[in-house]
Write a structure and sequence with these properties.
Length: 692
């Protein structure tokens, strides 16, 4: 029998495929065919191959390859077929698009058929397998691996693969985190890189297969410790124990947490303990002193005239001074003692172990001497005095709160009795301290309940007596004393951090009231509002004024802000930006109490100012006092040269008014025109002037 490819050597058998081998070929999940050589005509095809080419097993027999496959396909595989006709086994892949639009990938094998006796090639076996699913799976795997590779290279988190704790792979971030090259890491125990105190926790976490994040520390190759957050995941593999671990360096987070914890207990400017931390430490000191039957002292320090430093040299200079004071206090006591900042210019020193009152007094005297030495601020020598109050445990009090209050009362007594020295607490001082607390409590209640009223004083033009503006003046409706003027509570409110609340109320109420009068056809003039230096520094003045104007409906040209000279002397950038924002709104700016400050006059040309208000202290003795007349004359002439308007305050007599008129002052304000009036009285005055 001759050597025939698959099924015997009769044409009928080839065509029908009815033999056993034909049945097997049809059952296989592959396309199978046989072509003779050299004519390349089909001699056999199983059901799958015939259907693939659009024929039946019977109709395809005898057809040349270009007819069975089509000219386009034939041209695409001609080179591979020619190689097979030369006796080479050929394997290649070919994509095929079905009529449904789906793309399938086939693996084609061309196997030469050689005569066993003569070794002459008689034909070529064709085996075609659909490998689409395997191809898709491999492509998905490759894409997944590529994504993982890119992710592991791009992420800052270290990625570690391990099997039962033995590292099998890692990314570049792991190398950076540990300081070791990858070839030294692979094969090592993952737990060997964890700090010993955390190692047991990490082993138990891994053995239990947990996957929640937790924190440990790892040791870098150079020895430094790195806090990390670790999260492990078990990989879905046939072999157990495979895990992927993501390790995140949390050094920055830990530093931020430590900084946040520090700032919660310390003053951000001087880095000293704040009041809250001081009370904790003082309580511990007193508990220890109580057990040992020892003694402790509290020194309450306050800088004398610190506000003058802020007003004359600026807020930044004041901050530097506070830091210098803190440094001197720390240097002047023992390491075991405590130095804290409890307020703007208030410091507390706790002496943890003193033999007696003389020992506490000696330390206080040393601190006073250290503080009396000159401070240097921007090459400017500055002499500053301090007032110190001293309280003793157990002589004056047994609790931290009471001991601090006693030292505060003694400090206030030192300031009231001349400043620049120390005072021990005495029971007679409680009254003054309680008065301060009572005043603050009442003032806070007034803020909460809007316990203030505004009085209005007119400003009129000298030339014709016409109304030019109204100044809003705040009064405290004191529950015990009745109406209290601003001189008795504004400075106190500034020292207690309450001035901003009062200032907001004044601005809103003045704008609301003026808008109400204008709706009646009255007071089509600006209302002037005083703004303290503290308010100007601490608040976004321009934004707040814009909001108030929008809320009340008052036009910006009817609002005027009065500032003292001290506001304009420093913080040039901030002040200029704020004033320019006010001018952009259309709000007027005037300088109140002009001539009483310490600054140069350079700010008059630097800032967008509209008006100067001549202080009443220069007006009250005119025209009889020649010096005051000269000062008023100079102010008015300077204002005219700078294109600024002038308003004289405190005008009470006809001669004063006549003098100001001759000197060219535009407007006056004072008792000669009208006293400050409550809103109802001001309304009647406005109606009378309008002839209503």
């Amino acid at each position: 029998m001759t050597d025939f490819p698959l099924l015997g050597d009769t044409a009928s058998t080839e065509a029908s495929g009815d033999g056993l081998l034909g049945a097997i070929a049809d059952a296989l999940p592959a396309l199978i065919a046989y072509y003779s050589v050299p004519d390349l005509r089909c001699r056999y095809a199983n059901q799958a191959y015939a259907a693939y080419t659009g024929h039946t097993p019977a109709s395809i027999v005898g057809l040349p390859v270009h007819e069975t496959l089509g000219d386009v396909t034939w041209e695409g595989i001609r080179h591979d077929v020619e190689r097979a006709m030369r006796g080479q086994r050929v394997k290649y892949h070919r994509e095929h698009t079905l009529h449904t639009g789906e793309t399938r990938l086939f693996e084609v094998q061309l196997i030469p058929h050689l005569d066993r006796a003569t070794r002459v090639q008689r034909g070529c076996h064709i085996f075609i397998s659909d490998i689409t699913e395997r191809w898709k799976a491999e492509r998905t795997m490759r894409e997944s691996e590529e994504r993982m590779r890119k992710f592991s290279e791009a992420t800052q988190e270290a990625i570690v693969f391990h099997h039962e704790g033995v590292i099998t792979d890692g990314n570049e971030a792991l190398i950076r985190l540990t300081g070791y090259p990858l070839h030294e890491i692979v094969g090592q125990s993952i737990f060997s890189y964890i700090s010993p105190e955390w190692r047991a926790l990490a082993i138990e976490y891994t053995r239990a297969g947990r996957e929640h994040p937790y924190e440990v520390t790892v040791r870098h190759r150079d020895g430094h410790i790195i806090p990390v957050e670790v999260a492990g995941k078990t990989l879905p593999t046939e072999r157990a124990g495979y895990r992927i671990v993501v390790v995140r360096d949390i050094t920055a987070r830990k530093q931020a947490q430590a900084r946040e914890a520090f700032m919660a207990l310390h003053d951000p400017l001087t880095q000293l303990p704040n009041r809250h931390f001081l009370m904790e430490q003082l309580t511990q000191v007193l508990a220890l002193a109580r057990r040992r039957e020892g003694r402790a002292a509290v020194l309450f320090l306050n800088l004398d005239h610190f506000k003058t430093v802020n007003d004359s040299l600026g807020h930044q200079a004041g901050d530097r001074l506070l830091c210098d004071v803190a440094d001197r206090l720390r240097a002047g006591v023992r390491d075991a003692d405590i130095v804290a900042r409890v307020g703007g210019d208030e410091f507390v020193v706790v002496l943890t172990d003193v033999p007696d009152a003389q020992g506490a007094a000696a330390v206080a005297d040393q601190l006073l001497a250290a503080m009396n030495a000159l401070f240097m601020l921007d090459q400017i020598p500055l002499a500053l005095s301090h007032s110190i109050g001293i309280s003793l445990y157990p002589d004056h009090a047994g609790s931290a709160e009471t001991l601090l209050r006693c030292a505060d009362a003694a400090m206030q007594h030192a300031k009231d009795s001349g400043r620049g020295h120390r005072q021990f607490y005495d029971a007679s001082m409680d009254g003054g301290a309680l008065d301060v607390l009572h005043k603050e409590r009442l003032l806070r209640k007034a803020i909460a309940e809007s316990g203030f009223v505004l009085h209005y004083q007119p400003q009129v033009r000298l030339q014709d007596g016409s109304l030019q503006g109204l100044e809003a003046l705040v009064r405290w409706v004191h529950p015990e004393r009745g109406l209290v003027g601003p001189g008795e509570f504004i400075e106190f409110a500034e020292s207690r951090g309450l001035i901003a609340h009062i200032g907001r109320w004044v601005m809103c109420e003045a704008c609301r009231q003026l808008k109400g009068w204008q709706d009646l056809g009255l007071a089509l003039v600006p209302v002037a509002i005083n703004l303290s230096a503290i308010e100007f520094r601490q608040r976004d003045v321009a934004a707040e004024i814009a909001a108030v104007l929008q809320e009340t409906g008052l036009e910006p040209r009817y609002l005027e802000i009065e500032l003292t000279e001290s506001v304009l002397m420093h913080h040039t950038g901030q002040v200029l930006d704020t004033l320019m924002a006010l001018k952009a709104l259309g709000v007027g700016v005037s300088i109140d109490d002009f001539g009483t400050g310490y600054s140069s006059l350079a700010y008059l040309k630097r800032y967008p100012i509209d008006k100067l208000k001549i202080d009443r202290s220069f007006v009250m003795d005119t025209p009889d006092n020649a010096d005051d007349v000269a000062i008023v004359t100079a102010i008015i002439q300077m204002a005219h040269n700078l294109q600024l308007k002038t308003v004289a305050e405190g005008v009470e007599t006809g001669p004063q008014m006549e003098l100001l008129g001759r000197l060219g002052c535009e407007s006056i304000q004072g008792y000669l025109v009208a006293r400050p009036m409550a809103a109802d009285a001001a309304l009647q005055w406005l109606r009378k002037g309008a002839g209503q």
